[in-house]
Amino acid sequence: MTDRDDTRGPFVRVTSTRGPRVLPEETWGPRVAHPKVVVAPDKFKGSLTAPRVAAAVARGLREAVPDLDVRLHPVADGGDGTVDAAVAAGFVKAGRWVTGPLGKPVPASFAVRGTTAVVEVASAAGLALLERPAPLDATSHGVGELLKAALDSGCTTIVLGLGGSACTDGGAGMLEALGTTSFEGVDLVLASDVDNPLLGPSGAAAVYGPQKGATPEQVEVLEARLAAFAQRVGPEHAARPGAGAAGGIGFAALAVLGARFRPGIDVVLELTGFAEAVAGASLVVTGEGSLDAQTRHGKAPYGVVRASGDVPVVAVAGQCSVEPGDLGLKAVYALLDVEPDVTRCLARPEPLLHVIGGRIAREWMSE
């Protein structure tokens, strides 16, 4: 597993079967006239946001079957894009300038609905904010500032999406920014697609440090720093699931802020009302940039499949290296099956998703 999809980024060429991977038609279930389709993809990392993926697929669906009832429901699993998914579901985006991962001010945002806020680590301390890797210097300070802003907005439930971080500071910067801020009476929910401990061979430094540019020697330095920090703050929390997420921000939140850890996709599906959206649907379309062996381990498409119950689910993807049935899918439609040139897929994915949406409509909807 990875700290969100830092290593899964823009899809790369894989062997194509030239056409969608589809299970036998007798497994599809009955076709329904004038059906409802829910389009619930994650982003195509490095290429397209989840709302834009959903919109492109929906255009193709509606063009092929004009009277189709299409509901757009972009999702995320705790990484970058979690705030976008919340906003698409009716949350309001709020902006703040915060301390970036290298100390310079950066514009960041969180989402609010009522007394619930959604905050992304990636917005304030994400890898995408760096011009160059800085594994030893990146800080989570801005995350603490965003959490304070959410508290100042009157929120009593805060979802903190832990993916896409640039830092491996154990959350020390976040705690420094929070100071004596109290989280008493606040339900702080950590949303992540990984559940690694803080330390050791499966921990934040060893597994995710290299993704953030750390050399083997720097990984050792980071591990020693995390171990010393954990000893001061609460060593009994270092082995808890999720403590190693987001460079150890999970640890600080669990040990000091009284947070609880949950799989990110489950949290997002609840926040965005997926159960209500999928009720009465005849088909769900999910997806992400790369469908592979990692997808079963906390990634959004597999969470969508599990939450869809008996409703058949198909997926769109940049590339796919697994069989649909391995993920509980009825079919997979990959961009590389439509356009074998990877460069073109990355540069202009929306027209290809439009084409794929039309294919899905023609193959799954009744005449």
From TrEMBL:
The keyword Signal does not apply. The keyword Nucleotide-binding does not apply. GO terms for biological process: organic acid phosphorylation. Signal peptide: none annotated. Coiled coil: none annotated. GO terms for molecular function: glycerate kinase activity. Keywords: Kinase, Transferase. This is Glycerate kinase.
